[in-house]
Design goal:
Elements lengths: L2 E5 L2 H8 L4 E4 L3 E4 L9 E5 L5 E3 L26 E3 L4 H13 L2 E5 L4 H13 L7 E3 L7 H9 L2 E2 L1 H34 L12 H16 L5 E11 L2 E11 L2 H10 L8 E15 L7 H12 L3 H13 L15 H18 L35 H6 L2 H16 L5 E12 L2 E12 L26 E12 L8 H10 L7 H9 L9 H10 L3 E4 L2 E4 L1 H10 L7 H16 L4 H24 L4 H7 L9 E2 L7 E4 L3 E4 L9 E3 L1 E2 L2 E2 L2 H10 L5 E5 L5 E9 L2 E5 L4
Parallel strand pairs: 1-4, 1-7, 7-8
Antiparallel strand pairs: 2-3, 3-4, 5-6, 8-9, 10-11, 10-15, 11-14, 12-13, 12-15, 13-14, 16-17, 18-19, 19-20, 20-21, 22-23, 24-25, 25-26
Catalytic activity: ATP-independent breakage of single-stranded DNA, followed by passage and rejoining
EC number: 5.6.2.1
Protein name: DNA topoisomerase
């Protein structure tokens, strides 16, 4: 009986082969020698990711090659697939092996895309009616691989997951191909020559960034006024704040006046109460992919994509468990080996602490919360110092973070004493809160940063003690929301249910954990970067002019709402569970597309695109814009990222950047600047902190400067 094992990619196949004696290796497969698990041997072959993909529109109908409204919607009567470009040779070898096998084993990644890769190759190869089994493991360690192959599952669940993945793949094709053409053609009619890529998940993601940017731009700071006291007790000084916040200085001052208090004038106060409470912080939960992406982005500004790729390498090096996990729990089996290896893990991390408990806690260990994958944890393999030294810097940082979070599960809680002093001055109570560390507990595992140092301690005081007080009115100002970092964007995609007002829709989003999946969110962010909808500068995500155009024209449509993709995801899960059908889902998508095609032209026509159009349309012409103010001989023309003088070879080095303080400068604004020495007041500049501001641009000694209205 011949057995063929299909892995998702060569590295995965190599890891499987290392768990068994190998008889032969070729460019396209590895032959295993007879062994305890496979008495007659077996053959491992592999895909290169997706060997098979959906055909392009023009391959169904030549009329669909044209980007025209009259061919929409493009809905094939039957969806057809083809071998992906550049993968024909590997596909042919895999096909030959699959056809000659008696038994097939799907050993692709244990998620719906892994199921999709296996069955799409099988279908394209024309292989039918062969027994199929499923390998389901979370680690590439040799003993885990052998155990997995001894306990193969049937393919009933696998087939449902394939149907779910294929449905998602086709529906994304339908939305992407139709909506992208629809918006591109309609915007071109409005004079905007941009290819607009539209996606079920990527478009609502861009829209969330747009909404945050609008909040920042429209934010109006408000002043507020608080009462602050500085106190001198027998054992030292401290400060406090009254529970008063007023919109004007006069209102806050009136409270002081009414109490007979003059600002900054010494007067007596009394400590009316001192409260001490012992508080504790529990160790962090184990990492899922998204929590690891968020923390790595916060600590080291690693992009979500970089984190996923790096943890994938650690997985292939057999150091950590499966990376594309959305779970923060483990089962008793994983806890058992972690407990057993605890001394070795402590030794490699130089973390010598007495475990607080060796019993499993429901905070970390709960088999009912583990579905396909458990949390990202170290494997049983304890790396040598030499192996750790060979890891790249990002690999080392992420491995250490995963290890520290795992060790924290066995560590003590972080304990501190919180002291609250209530100081009464003329019947106005001021509150002072101090914190004293009592036991760093699990925080000992992480290096202590400057901003983590213990805050200044409050002096020792007693109830009814008299203190000298100085009271004043403090002016504060509300701050705008901050732009997203890439790590926060992952969190926003996962928790966008919190932003939806409708309770039912919010519940749906929470149930499916927002938009995208743990495995796809990093790719979605990379996609919207590639389509130039967003840019990331020093880890800060901002919308480009093209991204703003997209959001303006999809405002009000379901493409702007995370709810649509959440509802789709809910039904896709039903298909995976066997309670939903592909036919019903496609009917819903087709209905949505027809509605979109009917309603979008009117929505685009009434959208004011003048400012966005000017900023987003690329000009590749070398047409002169204005005479150079520096040499007076050349003309300024547009380059990719700046305006420069045509007399460059003659020695003129005058240039003006096309983007100043994150705002794109148009040819008309350049002409005003050069001709008049200044522009009109322009909106949309952003400071380095992401705060919006308005200003004129001025040309002084051939240097561009800002001029502010209030100066």
């Amino acid at each position: 009986m011949s057995i063929v094992i299909l892995a998702e990619k060569p590295s995965q196949a190599k890891a499987y082969a290392e768990a068994f004696p190998v008889a032969k290796k070729t460019k396209h497969f590895i032959e295993l020698a007879p062994n305890e698990v496979f008495p007659s041997g077996a053959v491992i072959t592999w895909g290169i990711g997706h060997l098979v993909e959906l055909k392009a529109p023009a391959e169904y109908d030549s009329a669909w090659k044209r980007w025209k409204l009259d061919v929409l919607p493009m809905i094939p009567s039957k969806y057809e697939f083809k071998v992906a470009k550049g993968k024909w040779e590997q596909f042919q070898e895999v096909k030959k092996l699959l056809k000659g096998a008696d038994v097939l084993i799907n050993a692709c990644d244990v998620d719906r895309e892994g199921s999709n890769i296996f069955y799409s190759i099988l279908r394209q190869a024309g292989v039918r009616n062969k027994p199929i089994q499923r390998l389901w493991i979370n680690s590439l360690e040799a003993d885990e691989i052998r155990a997995g192959f001894r306990q193969l599952q049937d393919n009933a669940k696998d087939l449902r997951m394939f149907k779910e993945a294929e449905t998602r793949q086709i529906s994304d094709w339908l939305v992407g191909m139709n909506a992208s053409r629809l918006y591109t053609v309609l915007l071109k009619q409005q004079g905007l020559n941009e290819v607009m890529s539209i996606g079920r998940v990527q478009s609502p993601t861009v829209f969330m960034i747009y909404e945050r940017q609008c909040e920042i731009e429209n934010f109006k700071p408000k002043k507020f006024y608080e009462l602050i006291g500085k106190f001198n007790a027998a054992q030292g000084e401290y400060s406090g704040k009254a529970k008063v916040k007023k919109e004007t200085y006069e209102e806050a001052l009136a409270i002081l006046t009414q109490a007979g208090i003059a600002e900054n004038t010494p007067l007596p106060g009394t400590i009316q109460k001192v409260t001490k409470k012992m508080k504790r912080n529990l160790p962090p939960k184990l990492h899922s992919l998204s929590t690891l992406q968020q923390k790595a982005n916060r600590l080291w500004k690693f992009s979500p994509k970089m984190v996923l790729e790096t943890v994938q390498k650690l997985y292939e090096k057999k150091l950590v468990s499966y990376p594309r996990s959305d779970c923060q729990f483990i089962t008793p089996a994983e806890f058992a080996y972690l407990k057993e290896q605890l001394p070795a893990f402590q030794d490699i991390m130089k973390a010598n602490f007495e475990p607080a408990s060796l019993a499993p806690s429901k905070r970390y260990v709960d088999a009912s919360k583990v579905e396909e994958h458990y949390a990202i944890i170290p494997t049983k393999t304890v790396p040598t110092v030499a192996k750790l030294a060979k890891l790249s810097d990002p690999e080392k940082r992420l491995y250490v973070e995963i290890m520290r979070t795992t060790l924290a599960m066995f560590h003590r809680d972080y304990m501190y004493e919180e002291t609250t002093i209530e100081t009464n001055v003329q019947d106005i109570v001021f509150y002072s809160v101090g914190k004293v560390e009592k036991d760093r507990g699990f925080q000992e595992l992480w290096p202590q940063k400057k901003d983590d140092k213990e805050p200044p301690k409050l002096p020792i005081v007693e109830q009814d003690e008299e203190v000298a007080a100085l009271i004043h009115v403090h002016e504060g100002e509300t701050k705008p929301p901050k732009p997203f970092t890439e790590g926060q964007l992952i969190q926003m995609m996962k928790t966008c249910g919190k932003l939806v007002d409708d309770e039912t829709e919010s519940d749906i989003l929470k149930e499916v954990e927002g938009i995208g999946t743990e495995a796809t969110r990093a790719g979605i962010i990379e996609t919207i970067k590639r389509h130039e909808y967003i840019q990331v500068t020093k880890n800060i995500v901002s919308l480009t002019p093209k991204g703003r155009v997209l959001c303006q024209v999809i405002t009000g449509s379901l493409l702007a709402s995370p709810t649509m993709t959440a509802k789709w995801e809910t039904y896709l899960r039903k298909i995976g569970e066997g309670t939903g059908t592909q036919e019903a889902f496609f009917a819903s998508v087709e209905k949505f597309l027809r509605h979109l095609i009917d309603t979008t032209p009117a929505m685009v026509a009434k959208t004011d695109l003048s400012e966005a159009k000017e900023a987003a349309t690329p000009v590749s012409s070398t047409k002169p814009i204005v005479t150079c103010p520096a040499c007076k001989e050349g003309q300024l023309i547009e380059h990719k990222s700046f305006y420069g003088c045509t007399n460059y070879k003659g020695g003129c080095k005058f240039t003006v950047s096309k983007i100043i303080a994150q705002k794109k400068i148009s040819p008309k604004q350049l002409t005003d600047l050069v001709t008049n020495g200044e522009t009109a007041e322009l909106k949309g500049f952003k400071s380095k902190k992401g705060n919006p501001f308005n200003a004129k641009l001025m040309l002084e000694n051939n240097k561009v400067t800002f001029a502010f209205a209030d100066k």
